[in-house]
Amino acid sequence: MMTANPAVRFESVNFSREEMHILRHVTGIFPKGRITTVVGPSGAGKTTLFKLCNGLESPDDGEIYIHDTSIHSYNPVELRRSVGIALQKATMVSGTVEKNLALPLQLQGKTLSHERAGELLDVAGLDASFLKRDVKDLSGGQQQKLSIARTLVNQPDILLLDEITSSLDSVSRQDIENLITSINRDYGTTIAWITHNLQQALTIGDYTWVMMDGEVMETGESSLLKEPQNERVKQFVEGEID
Amino acid sequence: MSYLTLSISLLFVIIPLVLSKTLNLGLEKDTTIAAIRSIVQLLAVGYVLQFVFDSENMVYILLMVVLMIAAATHNAQKKGVAIKGIIWKLIVTFTFVEVLTQGILLGLGITPPTAQYIIPISGMVVGNSMVLAILFLNRFTSEIETHQDKTELILSLGGTPKQAIHSQLIASIQASTIPTIESQKTIGLVQLPGMMSGQIIAGADPVQAVLFQLLVLFLLLTTAVLTSIMLGYLSYPTLFNQRMQLLK
């Protein structure tokens, strides 16, 4: 079992909406500087878990600690800048790639230099010539890369990725996997990544969570996916539970 | 106009009733109710107005304005049930718009402080404000729903609630005020405003009627823009909680 310094720590977190329990007694960590993958069938509460970390939602009870400080102690704006999130649907604001990249700084009343915008696109694996393109003209993979680059503008030390490769072709998926591993390696950014692709979880992730019906079934080194202890996790890994 | 001529004018109700019956449009019941309600409501208002005009008592005038605001609030709040405290927001908006416009008109001596002027103008101001509030709330609630992912995107990047809702707010203000602004562009060309037509029919000098109509048009312009902006800025904070999360 990995002993790691947690970037994010959950302690008995519960969350419900309209009397439906979405998360139940969630306890676990996202180790600092590592890539944690979160896997599980649809409706397991994975996206909600990430929204709690970014402060878009608050738990009904239980505690979440970001770098050992209770999430409630953070100013919501500061929290969201240091815990970046990229969702499955890479929502864009209408206009150019540059406008989208500049958005996080624009929200702070600052401007993004042309050079910095070019550098960010380069990190995301896009050419600087994309800056003036309309986001409508980008493919799904390019929009996803732009979404990640935009999240990086705030220089978050924790990056949450929600199924960002699920609708992409294998080439784009590989590009994004390489991008995320290089961000983790080069900047020491803690990554938490929701994926349906167990092979991706095994190859990219250092650490993994398996969630079902709002509960954490197993957590540990990614290799646990090869030999799960829990019977339901076994069924999930073998594809018997979607 | 006498009650006899009013009775003859009922022909204009009978025509749609006959057509509806003949063509099986099913509009007979609603048409009859609408005709009866307009007769009863307008006659009642006419007698009340006559009483208020004769009394020239400011308390009655104020009471009439309060009634108008209450009725407008009751009507408009149905479109804003998703917004917490919408009733108070509407009351504050309508009252502010009414006080401001009447303050300018009476304060600068544009209109005299009599029931004959205050009540009809208040009716136009509050009525227009109500229509604008309905248009705004309709658009704003649909914008919030449609662009929920955009709102969450901006919040997730560290934007404030005001930044997160800004484009939806502006789009709703624009959409609700455009009809007022656009209709003023073609006024006189496509249609003669009802109030001006009424004054001309009643025997007023057409130029005087036009001057007064222009005053009302400018008034309605202020009413429209002010209502949407005020309601928008009063409403958007209630969509978020203290942790700057979008309430669902």
Observed structural traits:
heterodimer, A: 242 residues, alpha/beta, Rossmann fold, four-stranded antiparallel sheet, 8 helices, B: 248 residues, 2 domains
Overview of this protein structure:
The complex is a heterodimer of chains A (about 240) and B (about 250). By secondary structure, chain A is of the alpha/beta class. Chain A has a single domain, classed as P-loop containing nucleotide triphosphate hydrolases (Rossmann fold). Helices cover about 35% and strands about 25% of the residues of chain A. The mean pLDDT of chain A is about 90. Chain B folds into two domains: about 1-55; about 55-240, no CATH class. Helices cover about 75% and strands about 0% of the residues of chain B. In chain B, helix 2 (about 10-20) runs antiparallel to helix 3 (about 30-55) and helix 7 packs across helix 8. The interface of A and B includes residues 57 and 151 of A.
Which strand order spans the largest sheet of chain A, edge to edge or round the barrel?
6-7-8-3-9-10
The secondary-structure element order of chain A is: EEEHEEHEHHHEHEHEEH
Work out the strand percent of chain A. 25-35%
Taken from the alpha-carbon principal axes, the silhouette of chain B is globular
- Helices of chain B, by number, come to 10
Q: How many domain modules of chain A?
A: 1
